[in-house]
Task: structure prediction
Amino acid sequence: MKRVLFVFAVVLFALLAINTYADQYDDVTNELEGLKKTFNDLNKANNTNQATLDDLNKQLQSIKGKILFFENEIEKKQAQVVEGEKVFEYQRGLLNARAKSYYKNASKNSFSFMQLLLSDNLSVSLQNFFYQKTLVDEDRRAIEKIALYIKDIQDKKKSLEGETARLAVIKVEVDKQSSFLAGEVAKTKKYLGELQSKIASLTAQQQAIIAARQAGLNLPRSAGTSLGGCVDDRNVDPGFGNAFAFFSYGSVHRVGMNQFGAYGRAKAGQNYETILNAYYSNVKLECKNFPNNKIKVQGYSEVDIYDYLKGIGEMPSGWGDSGGYEALKAQVVAAASFAYAYTGGGNNEICTNQDCQVYTGGNKGGKWEGAVNDVKGKCGDNNVQVMVSNDTGEVIKAWYASTHGGYEWTSGEIWGSQKPWTKHMQDTMSSANSFSELNDRAWDRESPWFYCDWGARADHNKTAWLKGDEVADIVNVILLVRADSSTSSHVGQPDKPTGDTWNQDKVKSELKGRGTTPFNSISSISINADIGYGKTNGVTVQGDAGSQSFDGKEFKDFFNVRAPANIQIVSQLYNVERK
Result:
């Protein structure tokens, strides 16, 4: 038994050490050799490692529970031994007395059968014979019983000594495992913290550069914009082969109503109330009054609320002529709700551009005016229909944007301030599980900005296609910053250098100097995306230096810093196309 327990303890220790380190080291081996391994792999390794540690901790807790049971049993045996020892002397005296009685009665009962037959009174003799025999038998049974009791006491004492010794060994091993486990958790957290610090986040300067580049992309915040936005380059020849383009799903924030999604729903027969309830969580429609039925508009003083709504330029009026009339009505209510919440019920001023919501300064007319009048009919001249949160009772700030790319996200996920009327959902006619299904089933799939590669270069047929060596350069930049975070200030756009920006050759040289083989070209790229959630989780590249995988956000951030011209990935969910 001692050997079994010892082997169990040794095996447990070995399993703990192997499982804790193997998962971590298998996933981050290259990182230990120069941080070659991917952030995505590291994240998976961390999750696996933590799960292993949690499982082993449960095992240790189970063992500790068994030890507690053993200790209680030993305490019971100790009490039995103590009690047994108290009567031990008495039992031994009783044993001696019984032994004397046994031999005495046995001698009396040993007369010959002839003596029995010659007795004057055979009946009395027989009675005496059997009486003496009964006494002898009782003495023998008592002796046997006492002897067995004494033996049991001695066995328990010996067993108790053995179990106490074995328990001490197990407790020592469990204490070692507990200490090891606690230390391993601490080391894992420290290790991940150190690695995270090496995978440098973008500097404030780099973030400003990205913001400026994306501002130049004319990202459409509303469906009614006249901005050109992007052009789908899938059928455009850039003039070179082995080309890659990164396509984003949707644009800007993706919170609240998806305008092109509302248009798709309206054409499918949904009314404006159904559309609003699809995009806003747990709301009801109510009639609210602006002070004197007017709203303060920047540059226009006070404007009648319905005149203001008739001048909202957030959605094309022409949608009303092509089956999207209910989408216009949904937009009227969303715009009224946003204006009410933004101005604090009409007490404050609202701006007229996309930072608030676009106001054209006059009546747009057409189907848009008809939609405003239809909504007006729900509440009368002096009130306006708005959405009210059932959770908070307030008129909601009804965010909306042109194209969500098949998804809606909560305000907390995008801005960090969670509002109960926002939701996360896949905005599709039926569940999509692949890029192709998403392209077919998203309500906003008709938007020109639904699936786009943002940016362009005049010298490549005004496309956003990248050469294999340009993608290799972006990959090398990520690997370099992983290996040495101090190099992050050198990895801006090589075609628009600022300060001490390193070009492709310099990045390769620096990477070699840190023990990592750089890529010269990329032959294939695969995307790991969570289609249900709407996020690209990872990017894996194959090239002349082997294979590398990256976290989806990590790749997007460095892509947006390093990619040439104004080429950008603008969405959490993106895909790659190859030509």
Summary: Confidence is low (pLDDT under 50) at residues 1-40, 110-114, 197-201. The CA atoms of residues 29 and 426 lie 37 Å apart.
